Amino acid sequence: MFLADKSTEFRFLIDTGAEISVIPPRTIQERNSTASKLKLFAENGTTISTFSEKLLTLDLNLRRVFRWPFIIASLSHPIIGADFLKTFGLLVDMKNNCLIDTSTGRKISVQMMASSKGKITLLAADSPYKELLMEFPEITRVEAKAKVKHQVEHHIERTGPPVFSRARRLPPEKLIIAKREFQYMIDQGICRPSKSSWASPLHIVPKNNGDWRPCGDYRRLNAVTKSDKYPIPHIHDVALLLEGNTIYSTIEFFRAYHQIPVREEDIHTENSSHQAFWTFRITLYELWLM
C-alpha cells in the first residue's frame, strides 16, 4: 500500500508489519553521517543501519497535518509503520483500498501493490532475548511522547526576580524549523504556551545529519541559579564498584529531557500567585510567539 505526501514529495509504503517509521537519507550530510546505536532488522534477519531521526510534517490529504520523527535508515523507500498509524489513529482498509482517519472519519484511496520490502522490527530474529522482550514490548518501543513512570521532577533554585533577554530574530528558513519543532512538542503534550516572565533567546543549531536542533541561551538564567555543589563520583571509585562483575548493560533514553516533568509549583499559569518560570520546553516556545 503506497501513499503520496504533498509536503515532502515522498511516496510512503504503508506497512502495518513495520514497528517503526523510517525514511532513507536524502542529503549528503544524512548519507555521510555516523551510524547511530539503534539497529533495525528486516524480516530475513538482515541488519539495517540507522543514522538519526528527522521530524517531518506530512500532508496526506486527510484535512490535518501529521508531525512525526522518522528514523533515517539505510533503505531505498520511506515507510510509515505501526507506530505512526497507532499514534494518529489511522486504519488500513485492505478490502476497499483506503486509509481511514478515525479522528475525522475521512477516507482516502491508496494504491495497493505487492511489495518485497518485508517488515521492520527492533528485535533480531535470532536474538536469545526475543521472547522475553516480546513479553514486555514497551521496553523497545520508541515513543515520541514521554510516559513518565517516576517521581523525579525538575526544579531550579534561583535568586532575585525573573530574568529575561530580548528575543533574537531568526532567518525565515530557521523560523519555519522552529515553528515545526515546537508545534510537534505541543501536539505531543510536551509543552504548552506560557505567560511567564522568564525568557531566553532561541538558537537553531545544525546537527551532523543536516537536521536542526532548537537550543536556548541560558546565561542570564544560569547567573541567578543556585549551584548544586554535590560532588561527582571520582572515576577510581566508580571503577572499584565494577570489580568482580562480568555482565554489564547500557541504556539510552529517547528524548531523555522530556521524560523529566517540571515541578507543578514551578509551572507558571495565569492564576499563579507566586513567581514561577518555565524551563527549556516552554521558554523557547514563548520566544517563538514574540
UniProtKB/TrEMBL annotation:
Residues 10-84 form the Peptidase A2 domain. The keyword Hydrolase applies. Keywords: Endonuclease, Hydrolase, Nuclease, Nucleotidyltransferase, Transferase. GO terms for molecular function: aspartic-type endopeptidase activity; endonuclease activity; nucleotidyltransferase activity. GO terms for biological process: DNA biosynthetic process; proteolysis. The keyword Coiled coil does not apply. Pfam families: RVP (PF00077), RVT_1 (PF00078). InterPro entries: Aspartic_peptidase_AS, DNA/RNA_pol_sf, Peptidase_A2_cat, Peptidase_aspartic_dom_sf, Retropepsins, Retrovirus_Pol_polyprotein, Rev_trsase/Diguanyl_cyclase, RT_dom. This is Retrovirus-related Pol polyprotein from transposon opus. It comes from Araneus ventricosus (Orbweaver spider). The lineage of its organism: Eukaryota, Metazoa, Ecdysozoa, Arthropoda, Chelicerata. The gene is pol_4285.
